[in-house]
Amino acid sequence: MNRNLCICLDFLTNAHKARIQTAAESAGFTPHFFTTDQLEQAAACLQHCEVLYANSPKLLRRAPNTLRWYCCSNAGVDLYCADPTLFANPDCMLTNSNAYGVTISEHVIMVTLMLLRRMPEYEQFLQRRSWPSPLPIRSIRDGSFTLLGTGNIGSHVAERLRGMGAARILGLSRSGRPVPGFDEVLPISRLDEALPEAHVLILSLPSTPETVNLLSRDRIALLPRDACVINVGRGTALDQDALAEALNEGRLAGAALDVMVPEPLPEDHPLWQTRNLILTPHISGNMSLGYTCDLNVDLFCQDLANYAAGRPLQSLVDRSRGY
């Protein structure tokens, strides 16, 4: 009997499909390709498939209990972990994609430089058609950076900071285990100890019960006045109101949010008017960079070979932990 694979994605090129076709045939599968506007056709095909490669809760909900592996093309899988009813088969394996490290880390470097070189303040001057004297700025070189999250994204950020001359890179993770590229990694339980020395704090955390409001009002108050906060993980990780107040009152130097609550941000939300804040509409990752798409497909094909051979999947998610 043929082993079928359902793929429902919009970013695939003909080259990507050929790559998947070759990998699928080698693994003994027949791939069936759909786009997200072909949801009904994909759902019908899915009834005879054991593997789904997509990013669609609606499609997953219509999968039969014979589905054995759902490969999510996205990095964030908190929705799938929070709602077990999405899986007709409670033992269905879930994997995510660690293809976003390059594009998100480059975004982090961009906004870090913008904050250290005080671009939000210069923009305000120029909007008033005012020509200011040069402001004192800081550099990544010889700087100290604190990264909340040491996974794929955090490690890519650390690598790029080090390449630009960062003097010290401190990581915080659930376990506190050492990670290459970091001078030191502490458990998140020591976050309060680290925050007073966090001059640039970068968050790349998944959304789990443990990370919600991790950077609370009280913890924001522990940051030094020259601190900058950058969040590319999930908007639920910090207290947005407290962050806005600290920025508007000059108790923080700046911030950059690519993720927030809610999304999209309403037109009348206070964050639009917050001082020294860079807002971007959740675009640091996604499938907008060709390299990300290529790597996403490559990682799926590698795990498809692992799946067919009975080997562990390299991107397996522990749904009880949320990542």
From TrEMBL:
Keyword NAD (UniProt): yes
PANTHER family: 2-HACID_DH_C DOMAIN-CONTAINING PROTEIN, D-ISOMER SPECIFIC 2-HYDROXYACID DEHYDROGENASE NAD-BINDING DOMAIN-CONTAINING PROTEIN
Keyword set, alphabetical order: NAD, Oxidoreductase
Gene responsible for this protein: yugC
Domain D-isomer specific 2-hydroxyacid dehydrogenase NAD-binding: 110-284
Gene Ontology molecular function terms on file: NAD binding; oxidoreductase activity
Protein name (database record): Dehydrogenase
Record InterPro entries: D-isomer_DH_NAD-bd, NAD(P)-bd_dom_sf
Keyword match Oxidoreductase: yes
Annotated SUPFAM superfamilies: Formate/glycerate dehydrogenase catalytic domain-like, NAD(P)-binding Rossmann-fold domains
Organism: Pusillibacter faecalis
Gene3D superfamilies on file: NAD(P)-binding Rossmann-like Domain
One Pfam family from the record: 2-Hacid_dh_C
